[in-house]
Amino acid sequence: MSSEIVQLLTQLHDKATIVARKAQPFLKASDPDYYRLGFVARHAWHFKREFRNLDTSLSRVISLTRNGNLEFNMQTMDQCISDLIGDQRSGARPCNISENCWKFIRSKNTTGYMTTHQALYFMVGEVKGCVPNITERLFKSHREGDGIIENIFETLCANIYKQVTRNELILHRQRKSRDSEERDLYMEQCYVCGILGYHKFLSPDRLSVILDWQLPPGCYGSNEYLRDEAQEKEDSEEEEDWNYKELIDEGLRLKDLENRRMTHPTNASNLPGGCERHITGVATGLLGVYLKWLLTVPSLESILM
């Protein structure tokens, strides 16, 4: 690795650390319950897999819909993940897996956000040291090939890959681009399976598309905001001053955020500049996966520069 790349990585790390620290109070105030669930936002995400091939023949998806699985319920998923994490304040121990949650998590033939969150559930379980509890449940379920978490990861990502490539083909044929919600799901799918090590979700062309979705402030969100801004502020060349005062002026006062709740991944609060909370977080994670991938493929290292 060249000294230039080492310097670039150091700068990115330092900047990301500062941004994450500044974002903490706003996340905590806007959604205390979600913040408690998001323990990974306050600690390093120690979930590592080497890049590997994906057996796409494992896909078991029967039907694919544009908006994903209609049975996905964010509140149920949050509760199931909360049971895994535990709560020191209430004395709830981690690694609790209720029968209802297990049935929900092990639903078959899922699509969209439901599939990605099934994978995230097992990822969180691994990070929290719940593998023995999960493995015991898997063996009791008597499903062929499901006794190992890695088998579940590969099957889920095979399903997700089928969805990703199918949607890419449809959009290409129709010569359409994704809307904000579709981009959010697409990047979440690529992030989840990318961090699991399945490099089929990663490519220079896909990276180029993802970078093109970035808004001027550096975040991700809706292009509709930019069009509205252009109409309201013609010829205005004022750059946004990303500081604490502007966030307050934009209505993000901590006391005004206390009662907001996120019931669906893409319903995240909007921020200045057209930025949206959830899609920006997902994109940041995915770009981190791409960074690791580019560093492990010598022929692609030049893209970083």
From TrEMBL:
Q: Name one Pfam family in it.
A: DUF4735
Q: Which superkingdom, per the lineage?
A: Eukaryota
Name of the molecule in the record: Uncharacterized protein
- Origin species, per record, is Desmophyllum pertusum
